[in-house]
Amino acid sequence: MAEHVAHVERKRVYVTIWIVLLCFTALTTGVAYIDLGSNWNTVVALAIAVCKASLVVLFFMHVRNVSERMVRVVIVTAIFTLTVLIVISFSDFATRKLIPPPPGLRQASHIVVHHLGEEQ
Amino acid sequence: MGTASAATLPGSGEEFHLHYLNVKHGLKAWLLTTDHKRIAWLYFFTTTFFFIVGGLAATFMRLNLISPQGALVEPETYNKLFTIHGTIMIFFFLAPAVPTVLGNFLIPMMVGARDVAFPKLNLLSWYIFITAGAIFLYSVISGGVDTGWTFYTPLSTMYLNTHVLSAAMAVFISGFSSILTGMNFIVTIHKMRAPGLTWFRLPLFIWSMYAASLIFVLAMPVIAITMALVMIERIFHVGIFDPALGGDPVLFQHLFWFFGHPEVYILILPSMGVISELMAAFSRRRVFGYGFVAFSSFAIGLISFIVWGHHMFVSSESAYAGIFFSAMSMAVAIPSAVKVFNWIATMYKGSVSFEAPMLFALGFIGLFTIGGLTGVFLASMGLDIFLHDTYFVVAHFHYIMVGGAIMGYLGGLHYWWPKMTGKMYPDYWARISALIIFVGFNLTFGPQFLLGVLGEPRRYATYPPNFQFLNIMSSAGASILAVGYLLPFIYFIWSAKYGAPAGPNPWGARGLEWETASPPPVHNFDVTPVVTHEAYDYEAVSETVAVS
Lengths: 120, 548
Known about the structure:
The complex is a heterodimer. Chain A is about 80% helix and about 0% strand. By secondary structure, chain A is mainly α. Chain B has a single domain, classed as Up-down Bundle (Cytochrome C Oxidase, Chain A). In chain B, about 65% of the residues lie in helices and about 0% in strands.
């Protein structure tokens, strides 16, 4: 009997989380139509995505209330790897303009851009 | 210690051994097996098939490069040939070969277990693998794909009309097979070790496989997602990598090489584990600096995730990011060198013998060292601008992948073949094969270093006539290499029928896999072993005891 109650309870949680995820998806789509200016759309969309991912990990992947150390190690490792990917990749994009390209290269790239523009 | 279940054949009085090969017969018994040893054989046959296909593509490429104008095929076909060669060799031979054949067969036996942690998942991995392989073969047969194994955008998403989608789908699917195999190994090593088998008593092959499995689990999802993004951009024109749609092609390179460089270590780490086993067994000594060798695998695995930008020094990457990636790439030489020095130190004052597996291991050390050191050249930003996308790079990574990974795989196959089949192969011919491969390999790829320095770019079907001599040398070397690879096919098949019985431990080696019969019984050990010493206890008498 207790098992049955727990089963029904779990099912309710899953359905609730699923509805919340759908709401977040609708929110992401809605926000995309509003111009928040200077990259804020991306920030908001990513923030919503992080919330959704957290819900999936905590509830659908049963990480909430898990006490086993190994599961925590796996989660921390995954987040750490993702952080490495994002931080180091974006440090490339963020630091490209710190050293301007040599004048010759700049001129060459202008010619290429101009030429491409003409082609299109 | 446990031996194979022996019984008397009814009516004949003859004794026979029941083992994993003769316990059940028929195609169904093989295709639905959950025995890790049989699954290892399934992988052996499929990866060997892919090795032949990838090797044939390489053969046509080398034949074409005999003449500066291209002796055999049109440039478009040449592009397809190097794509087939690269994709098949990386995703369908090198990455799975050692882990799924030797790893599958040996990990449970080395840890004293009856099977891997998830036997059904193990079989599922193989089915996913052959599904991916079949899809890739479909893309080859239906017209081919010419992106190169790297699928660089926007070439792959916007400009090519070849079968990019099915090829990308194949790579996407094959990633899941690797993830499942990696997870299976990690759990097996954590949870299924025999009583008394502590981490520091484990064979170093297990440490290497553990590090490689971690990379499998962490890196493979990235390539799967990246391939999915390529497919989404190609089908739905969503701007991810194409600048015309608002995407960034360099983002693809970041994502691809975030997977791609750890992938290189997926290929080499398992072979490094094999070499540790061979060095100990044929030097009759404990591996020098066990702890350092074990942790160097993890150091390689860890650093492998922060070196990817060295593939992008000339792809508009920021100079600051380049400095970081350059330094990290050079740092990976340290744990690699720890291994090489420790293997050599293992031989010092050892009772070294030169059976075929040891010759492959020595070949590995020589070729891997050259491959590793030329990698340090390429990690240097200034020099890389000159050498990038030349034959120098081709030679460098073939020294790692063929000279390193395949030499290790062949060494391991020769070492454990008697365990897998219960039969010995002719050692004389195996030694000849090792020597031919070593000579053929150097003749194939040595000249390519020179071609690279002279400026011949890779992935071109034609070249200036002054490069012809070195190209002919390289093609001639490839034909010698092919003979070296053909020999094991012949004597391995011969040995399965005519080879002398191997006995449980033909090399007099330590390690749990040698304490059971050859071929092993279905559940590996008749009784669970209790381990009281480390895997390389050559100095002491084995004290393994058995309890039921």
